Amino acid sequence: MIEFIRQVVLPQFGIDAASATISRLGNGHINHTFLVTDSVSKIVLQRINTSVFTLPDVVVNNAAKISRHLSSKRQNNQYSLHVVSPVVTSSGALSLNLDKQGFWRAIDYIDYSHTIEVVTQAQQAEVAAYAFGHFAAVLSDMPSDSIVDVIPNFLNLPLRINQLTHAVTGDPHSRLSVCQKWADFVLSQTDILLMLADFEAKLPKRICHNDTKINNMLFDKRDMSSLAIIDLDTCMSGYLMYDFGDMVRAFCSPEPEDSTALNHVYARPEIIISATNAYVKALNTIITPLEKQSLWLGIKVMALMLGTRFLTDYLNGDVYFTIVHPQHNLDRAINQLTIYQSLIKQEPQLMPLFS
Ligand code: GN1
Ligand code: MG
Prior knowledge:
Layout: H1 2-12, E1 21-24, E2 32-37, E3 42-48, H2 56-75, E4 86-87, E5 96-97, E6 103-108, E7 113-114, H3 122-139, H4 157-170, H5 176-187, H6 191-200, E8 206-208, E9 217-220, E10 226-229, E11 236-238, H7 240-251, H8 269-282, H9 289-315, H10 328-345, H11 347-350
Antiparallel strand pairs: 1-2, 2-3, 3-6, 4-6, 5-6, 7-9, 8-11, 9-10
The structure holds 2-acetamido-2-deoxy-1-O-phosphono-alpha-D-glucopyranose and magnesium ion (MG).
Magnesium ion binds at residues 211, 231, 233-234.
């Protein structure tokens, strides 16, 4: 793919292909991402996975709208983070559609950036949670219908559970016997659906990021302050509790998302407390009392939902998330469901934080 990028894609983005270096970037499960450096610039180049993002034009248009909004806020000193903006093609387009050879887009690379895969100190959780909260706060005056739903029902737990039920019933790759216990566990979690429906009926819809894991926040490698929020591809209308919940489920474990060291996979209360305080502080004037109350539910929902999605993909033969080995989605599912169980165990101590 690297040679194809050099010969066909880079010239379209005005990059000097002969002198450019191209390397893989990040750990995304969906798109292919590269860092491209030539003598004058550094950009992030992505081949969008069009099986997942079936309307890639919508993805790049949404992301451009979000970055324009953030940039104008930054100009008015209302947004303190850097903005990842689109890098257009030589003809001024937001993307390069080569049909079977890919849908390509480029974005700014931010210098001095550093990502982490696991939160090791409460201070990191605090910095990142404040940044994600600030991002949500600054988007709060953008009407939630001003961007298009790129993946309708993306964060719909009842739908995700139905998809699991379907995979369990069909068991198309005869993998159920390996994970029956976990599938039964997910399908027994019916109370949370009732609670969720009750909250959703009353909560305001806002533009959310929808993928607030720790590696979507760039730290400044010089002092580990926050630099930018990246990966605007799943920005859609949603509920604050989802962004908060996805963030906390990703920050709270001392192990990576696919770790099988289950003795060490749990929700660290001190990280949850730091992340919560920072997120609520950043949204201070915006978050409603009911939204604040919903945040605890959001953490549980997002851990359960991601565990369910990984398990469903395992049963379906790994058609959605990129995997590195055959058990990968199962390992990820068990990891997330273990975090969910740890959250439930600590509910009596942690839930009062959100009242
Ligand atoms: C996927 O590709 P990446 O890493 O940005 C997924 C998210 C999951 C995440 C789990 C479009 O995001 O929903 O939370 O993996 N994105 C999509 O690591 O499904
Ligand atoms: Mg993403």
